[in-house]
Structures are given as structure tokens and as C-alpha cells.
Amino acid sequence: MTQPPQLPPPSPFPVQRSHGNATAAMVLGIVGLTLVPGVGIVAWVLGAKALEEIDAHPEAGWTNRDHAKVGKITGIVGTVYFVGLVLFVCCYFGFLISMVGWSSTS
Length: 106
Hints:
This protein is an all-alpha fold. It is built from three helices and no strands.
């Protein structure tokens, strides 16, 4: 009679998983700060959602809560930077248009 194959003993440590949205938020936050300023909004939303999911289900064993936090923070900073950049460009072109209009009336 043949015996069934022997299974390895279970691991004494709980299985830890990484949250995909947390890593994506961190990467998008860094990209939003360096290359594409508008991406910070997406990083902010993904980081906030990942933090909510990680905090709501601690038994799931998510390992990268810090990635979600970094993604959310860099998303906020990237969004503020993007809004400031848009305001600067609008003010700059508004000033140029007003100067052209002022010089043409003189």
C-alpha cells in the first residue's frame, strides 16, 4: 500500500501580503513630484483608500502601510504643487494679456 505524500508543516509565522494600491500610490506620488505634477491627485486617492483598507482589516496581514502613507503624503504635496503651478501660469498669462491690452490702448 502506498502512503500519501508528506506535506510540510505549516509556517509558525502568519502569511504577510503587500497591498498593491499602497505600492502604486507611493510610486505615483513620487512620479507626481518629479515628472508629471497632475498624477499626485491619483496617488492621494489611492493612498487614502489603501490606508482605509489596511486599517479596516488588520487580520489580513498587509505589510506595507508605510507605502500607503508615503503615497498619500506625496500625493498631497504633488497636488498642492500642481495647483500652485496652474495658478502661477494663469497669473503669468493674465499679466501678459493685461500688459498687451494696456500698451495697445496708449
